[in-house]
Amino acid sequence: MSSAAEQKAVAEEGVRPAAVVDGAPRRVPGVPVRPGAPTPLGARFRTGPDGVAGTNFALWAGGAEAVELCLFDERGKETRVRLTELTHEIWHGFVPGVVPGQRYGYRVHGRWDPWTGGRWNPAKLLLDPYARAVDGDFGLPPEVYGHVRDWPQQHVADTVRDERDSAPYVPKGVVVHDDDDWSDDRRPKTPWADSVIYELHVRGFTKLHPGIPEELRGTYAGLAHPAAIEHLVKLGVTAVELLPVHQFAHEDHLLRRGLKNYWGYNSIGYFAPHAGYAASGTTGQQVGEFKRMVRALHAAGIEVILDVVYNHTAEAGELGPTLSLKGIDNRGYYRLQSDARRYADYTGCGNTLQVVQPHVLRLITDSLRYWVTEMGVDGFRFDLAAALARSMHDVDMLSPFLAVIAQDPVLRRVKLIAEPWDVGSGGYQVGAFPPLWTEWNDRYRNAVRDFWRGALPDVRDLGYRLSGSSDLYAWGGRRPYASVNFITAHDGFTLRDLVSYERKHNEANGEGNRDGTDDNRSWNCGAEGETDDERVRALRRRQLRNLLTTLLLSTGVPMLVAGDELGRTQRGNNNAYCQDNEIGWLDWGLLAEPGWKALFDLTSRLIALRHRHPVLRRRAFFSGRAHSADGLRDLAWFTSRGAEMTERDWYAPAGTLGMYLSGRDIPGRDERGEAILDDSFLAVLHAGDRPSDFVLPGPPWAERYEVVVDTSREAQSEEPAVTHRAGAAITVPARSVLLLRVAG
Questions:
Q1: Catalytic residue among 128, 383, 422, 461
Q2: 419 has catalytic annotation
Q3: Which one, of 245, 401, 270, 384, lies nearest residue 324 by Cα?
Q4: N or C: which end of the chain has fewer CB within 10 A?
Q5: Which stretches of 635-735 are assigned E, i.e. beta strand?
Q6: Which of 126, 115, 124 is nearest to 145 (CA)?
Q7: Of 162, 199, 419, 497, which residue is the catalytic one?
């Protein structure tokens, strides 16, 4: 076969390679099917009009010629039922006697024509996009590919249809009984300005926790266990942001290297909790276990935010497997190039969902509403959100996706966080998302990292980041909490590794250390990796205190990564997406080490300080103007000389910055309608490698100051250790933060 034209002729004539066997449907007569209803989509157990219990199945499959429902018994025997009712491109039917726990899938018939985007192949069992539970693992043998994966001529392999049956090799959807009542649940409903987010991995957070029973470690039940929740409560966070818990699959290149996708950014089931995190079972039990986890966290005052991946699926590009959407309607679900064999890839993962299509938009919004109304979650962080905001090609803040979210009565009331970029042209959109949305602010991350490693040319950018990033978000009614401030995230170095490595060490990923970013903005404090040099180790712990203190004193919403508060390391791996082992799991033994226990105590104390003082979690941007005759302003910046910064000072190289926050000029009123009054604070950030004098500002700013936090100290005192007179020159230790409260 020497050309694509000849290969197309072979495919259209039905010629099969020798390795392919006949995949003719095996139908069992006598299974009753009633018309049922086209809505809701998915498999919904209910009582039929004659009082007989059964399940209504409904699948959108635009362009399909026929749809078969496939039911599987405990031994894996398949019974196929043809759905004959078609309403607005939705194939549907009610099957009496099908009850919760029933495993099922679909086979969709249509024209095999990759040149126009048609990739229908009834030999491939397809997962229902609306399946609420999934039973089984996604391996990727050749049989699960719609094309002949190992065809000798790989440049045309995607055009040769594979006729082998994939059913024995793919997971099945599971019918679930919707019988839960959330009347006893109390959502925390924490205001954005009061939120402290804690990004964690369900499995990684619980896998090694000594207080969790071994059989529950790595599961939703493990996260719901009192020992896990106790840590979150002691720390003081208000929300957990869970790395993806939608059902996901592993990539072929990982499986070939004996690895798996650990993070889960490879979704294939947008309604199903990932079965691998369930301790109670995978034939529907995972749904109830997830709900119990949410209830337990809510009871502790902690919200649940899901990291969701609606920008692409696990089916990859034209050489990827056929697991669900690709076989239901490839050209309806995915963005294709002008050469319809190829996929438009704005995600770096092989495909991009065609969100401008109504049925795709419906899939996403139905999924989001389901997780809010029936699974109890409180918000979402959207992976590569710019890809969802693209209209035909360009990112468009008036796109259908953003418009639908803005008017949806359920979704507009939950927390919405954008990762405001994708890998396509024009995809970087930090500061551009509309009101209702908050954003991961990577400009905050970069400025803070650069300041503490001594790489900022001046402090202009740092000033904006510490005070809420008004240059990015003070438009359209947005507030300081539009900025989710973070220094680390799951993607990249841990906080400890940020001060221990200058280069990534990703050899364990098996990609020749080519994966992961090279732009780490890190500093190893004088030695690469772990060291026995106590001076280096002490400096690293001090830098961690500086970074965490800066984060938790900044205006905006702070986000911590699980384990950063106790010195977790990934041994220099800045892309641990495939490390389902000690590299990716939290080492709880660190809390037994005095240095790391002290770091946890400081983090907890800073979060408690933030909760107590509204001046640290403002709901409106600073004005920088005097609101009274004495000239005191709500925000002021000082040089080490004790003088207010001039325009020239902002442009000059500086390793020291003083930030004054007035508790007397907080906009807004409390719930009783009274003015909000608080203490005032002066934060002095000094990144220099030698001690420096700093003159404390005098009246009207203060008469005296009390030292509340001194990051040069390993252990912090609960009471102010030192009081200083205004106008005095104090010594700020090298590489440290002093937080001083105005006394009197």
A1: 383
A2: yes
A3: 270
A4: C
A5: 635-638, 656-661, 681-686, 692-695, 704-710, 723-725, 729-732
A6: 124
A7: 419
